[in-house]
Amino acid sequence: MKFSWLFIILSLYVVYVHAVPYVKEGKCRGEPIVRQVCHNHVDHGHATFRWCKSRAMQNMWYFNRLHKECQKMDYFGCGGNGNRYCTKTQCMDQCRNA
Fold it and tell me: Can you point out the beta strands (E) in the chain?
């Protein structure tokens, strides 16, 4: 019985620790989980599942390697790649020398 309670408490703690950064105000919902990579093509992701809408974000940025500049894009909330940035400044700082 003690093991069950310990497991429940530990599980709740893990969920809390991983959820807190995503509920803080000002967090960029569309920020990629994988490392950001400037040389990937633009990928808007998809909105196939219900939960995609909660991560969707307009006015994100990607690095256009052909033009060597950051350009606006809309992110649909699921999938995509690492060439997705929350701000133009973040995109330029990461990809300036790409």
Answer: 57-64, 69-75
Q: What is the pTM of this model?
A: 0.70
User: Quick check: 6 pLDDT over 70?
Assistant: no
Of the candidates 42, 27, 50, which has an alpha carbon nearest to the alpha carbon of residue 75?
Answer: 42
Residue with tokens 């000002």: 26
> Does residue 73 contact residue 83 with C-beta atoms inside 8 Å?
no
Contact by Cβ (8 Å): 81, 32: yes
CATH number, domain of 59, equals 4.10.410.10
Strand partners, 69: 64
Query: In this predicted structure, what is the pLDDT of residue 70?
Result: 97
Taking the C-alpha atoms of residue 39 and residue 80, their distance in angstroms, rounded to an integer, is: 14
Range of the domain at 56: 30-95
d(C-alpha 37, C-alpha 82), whole Å: 5
